Fold:
Amino acid sequence: MIDSMTIASSGIDFAMIWAGLIAFAVLAYIILDGFDLGIGILFPFIKSKTDQETAMNSVAPIWDGNETWLVLGGGGLFAVFPLAYAVIMPALYMPIILMLLGLIFRGVAFEFHWRTKNSQDWWDRGFFLGSLVATLCQGIALGALVQGITVADRAYAGGWWDWLTPFSITTGIALAVGYVLLGAAWLNMKTTGELQKQSVQFAKIAAWLTLFFIGIISLWMVFIEQQYLHRWFDAPNVYYLMVVPVAVVFCGFKLLYGLHRGRETSPFMYAIGLFVLSYIGILISFYPNLVPPSITIWQAAAPDDSLKFLLVGAAALLPIIIGYTSYAYWVFRGKVKANEAYH
Amino acid sequence: MELLDVVLLARIQFAFTIAFHIIFPGLSIGLAAYLAVLEGLWLKTGKSVYLATFKYWLKIFSIIFGMGVVSGVVMSYQIGTNWSVFSDKTGPVLGPLMGYEVLSAFFLEAGFLGVMLFGMNKVGKGLHFFATLMVSIGTLMSAFWILSVNSWMQTPTGYAINEVGQFIVADWFEVIFNPSFPYRLAHMTTAAFLSTAFLVGGVGAWHLFKARKKGERNEVARLMFSMAMWMAALVAPLQLLIGDLHGLNTLEHQPAKVAAMEGNYQTQKGAPLYLFGLPNSETGTVDYAIKIPKAASLILTHDPDGELIGLDQFPKDEWPNVPIVFWSFRIMLAIGMGMIAIGLWSLYLRARKKLYDSPMLLRVAIAFAPSGIIATLAGWFVTEVGRQPYTVYGLLKTADSVSPLDAPAVATSLLAFMMVYFIVFGAGVWYTMRLMSKRPSQVIEVDDDSETTVFLSNRVASKSDGTTDGKKREGDQ
Structure:
């Protein structure tokens, strides 16, 4: 299945390096925008208006940077795996368009909330619904990708509703629950008082639900595609890969323990841990495919010239990006107080 | 027939989303640079009028930038959803350029935007200025890469074609610095600066006009207006020169586009310049024409009897839509001439020390507030519609670029985009205008801890500030 010629000819496997970088960008997006979107979903359930605004302000300076990882994921796919981009976009046409529309309402709410009194409620609703729709669509898109995409002659060859199945709906809901966990854990870390108390309650519920969905989806996945079953349960893989579910259980335990003991930072870290592990689980299942079941990383890759050209820039710029992004987080470190924004 | 409908719908959708989008980053480029200049002047001179102007436009910038971000994310996915065949074929060439845009521009803007908008009291003045500069540099880097991509689609060079029909790169330098890129980059960046200048000038003029009626003096509005008029006087004529060079470059590489711009159906020596007319592609004539004999030849070949290639040199199915290109070009040009006239007028008044005292100039400047945005859009229509029927000029037809989509799916999403864009960006423009209608504050807070107030006006007492601003402030917090 692996196009070994490509590897042999260049010595360095640029396609594999890029698969790793794109995977990193997508994971960065899921975690970083995950807690932003989770806060959007929680927004109407936060009791007081002041607390709602504090929650919104806790991510206002960073959401834009967080969303940029999504652009890197999409733009990067176009750059280094154009075939995958060209197949996935039409296949997931509807969830992607809906996600984009959702992200519009979510994004402008950060500004518009402060610009009007009369229609503030409407933009708040847009903030909630935009976050929810974008999240569900991302989860559905992931589920649809796991199920596999029909391809013929370098193009999508399936139907318009292929993406909508019980499995993809389940992954959609699972992601929403997971993002709520991240958002609640973030608020627990970044806020004080009533809002923090409420966040701990949200986080506890979301933590149990997230673990439940991780279990369900993991079991469901192996029945969807033979490759996933063999990857996880054939000897000797089963012995090595056991590490992943064991680590999930460990993170889940530490997360719940931290929440019950009133810890502020560790629940957020262990929630991220759950996301990283689930993500690694999906990568293990997919490999060597980029678009299951038929397009491999190497088939989808652009010519080495293109991969090399962009890799030079990525190698130079990504550390700098991570540097100044960390700086921005550091500037806004500590607890967020009410009415602290510039508005 | 059905395929044609999909192509048309996909084109309308893309044109719609990108036309909305381009307004915001265009203004972001100009405003970010303006804000950097203002903050730099404030740090250098310590004059609070610069800080007041900075704060005034910072809020407007943050709304415009936010709308640019959300409409831009749409663009990065629309290429794949609507033009998947184009994506597969051009990905190896254009993808890395967009990758560089994300890495060198988007992250830079987004990373420092938070500090720029919210960090005034969290970091030192120097660091804050650095953040503003980084945001401004980010907007310019973004323009660099995306215009390189766009220019390559107009004048593709440095490529080869591989066994699966993808464009691949033979020479990166030739790809990035393709023949039309330097001209397009200069023309578009200058357009962004001019659009911003006229918006700022229009807002300044509006407040000068209102202050005049009340017998007040508003230093912030004066600063806005004066800076904008310098831009009009110096940069608008420069833009005419750049535009002319860009046109000559287009004549060399895309003569059919220039023929459509000029309404020149027949190849001829001493081609006229049409000031007005209705191009008729059926008959190949310009009806109801008002023309200057030989002027088009003179402008484009610098010889009144020079020969201009007409559309008759190209098969009819490779003509762009002539009326759209013809008229968009005239709208852009007329606005440009108007800008130059305003610049000259302002120089005359400035020399007589009456820059702020001509109600006529103030009125015209108010009317011209959106002119740069309109001219930018018109210019985009010229260059993009003029590229048709190709996505990659001469190499890949638009009809062969489209995704394997069903017309109803594209029609539905187009409708959804239209509704959402009109609601969201309509509201955004409304809020922006409301901020711009708010009188620039006479009183500003200078220090972080002590709220010292500084009076900028000569005659205005703080009581008038209380009445007008107090009322407005109810609407926003």
Q: What stands out?
A: Residues 2-45 of chain B form the longest helix (44 residues). Chain B touches chain A through 76 residues (CB under 8 Å).
